[in-house]
Amino acid sequence: MKKSSFSPVQLMKSFTRFFYSNKFPPIWLSIFRVGTGFILLASFLSIGTDFSRLYHPNGILDIRLLKLDQHTTAIPSLFESANPYVRTAYPLLCLLLMAGLSVRACAAMLLFLHGTIFMTQYALYSYGFDYIAASCLFYCLLFPVNRYHSLDGWLFKLKPAKEETFWLRWLQLHVCIIYFFAGIGKLLGNNWRNGEALWKALTQPGFESTFKPDLHGLAAYPWIWVLAGQSVFLLEVSYPLFIWLKPTRKYWLWGIVGLHLSIALFMGLYFFSAIMILLNLCTFYYPYLMPANQKQISIPMVSPLSPLTATDETRGKASGLIQIPREDMT
Asked: Can you give the pTM of this predicted structure?
């Protein structure tokens, strides 16, 4: 009797192969850590002198009104007295994260500061970037990002991580979930299918950028907005499928990168676009599409100190010791 391919044993083997068998260059971990720290630092510095106006008890928003929406007064009272220190600590921690010194401690403190300032105490100013950035900081705390191209790795002689493929799969699945539900949300409404949402996003005041062409002339061609709006949610909904298929991976990857570049140019959401592009590059460009990874090398299952002779090679083939291709780790 033929065994079912969906038996628990087969599913467990497939699960193990997916999360543990493949090996990818760990460069994505370094890019992820440095990119996260750099984007957060740039975002914080872009606020400049407006930080005190926006995130200070004596700013444009009354702190007493903000406290009405808080479940505890501990965190607001802390920042009422520590605001000047926050302005110094946040960028300093970003620099330490980029350098790779005390990575997990820096990521934990940054996550606390970022969540408290931008997502809890002054949540009125928060948007998608703040939540994605918090997730990236959590992953910097969780992933072995301190083992590669970091001061921690150099000072403490840290060995390469063994479970880096597992963490890559985790991040890949997270990115797929983000795009799938973003596309589903657009699909359930009418304003993306008829192009209204895209029209408002690109023409209404509030989304200012250095590159802001006058698109009002395209109002006479509504089919352009309908086609563009539907293309956006179709690209996002189908992302979890076509990004995994080798023939279509690069097209969906560059399509998503192009989408975020357009968001940055036309809407001025530079940091949101930057962190989403970072996630895409770390999950599906550096592990798969980076030119150095396109080549494969053959790793012989014999000692590298004893090169195979003709007789040894014949014996190896007869005993099943064949060369196994593996993705280039250089």
From this structure: 0.81
DSSP helix/strand/coil, 70: coil
Distance CA(280)–CA(261), nearest Å, equals 12
The residue extents of the domains of the chain are 23-162, 168-294, 296-327
pLDDT at 324: 36
Query: In the structure, what pLDDT confidence band is assigned to residue 325 with cuts at 50, 70 and 90?
Result: very low
Helix ranges (DSSP H) in the chain: 8-16, 27-47, 51-54, 63-67, 74-99, 103-114, 128-142, 151-156, 164-188, 196-203, 222-237, 239-242, 246-267, 270-280, 291-294, 310-318
Collapsing DSSP to helix, strand or coil, 324 comes out as strand
Residues 6 or more apart in contact with residue 201 via CB below 8 angstroms:
207, 266, 267
Taking residue 288's Cβ as centre, other Cβ atoms within 10 Å add up to: 17
- Mean predicted lDDT score pLDDT of the chain: 81
Token look-up 């928003």 returns: 61
What are φ and ψ of residue 16, in 5° steps? Answer: -65, -45
Question: Which tens digits make up the pLDDT trace of 241-289?
Answer: 999 999 999 999 999 999 999 999 888 899 999 999 999 999 999 988 8
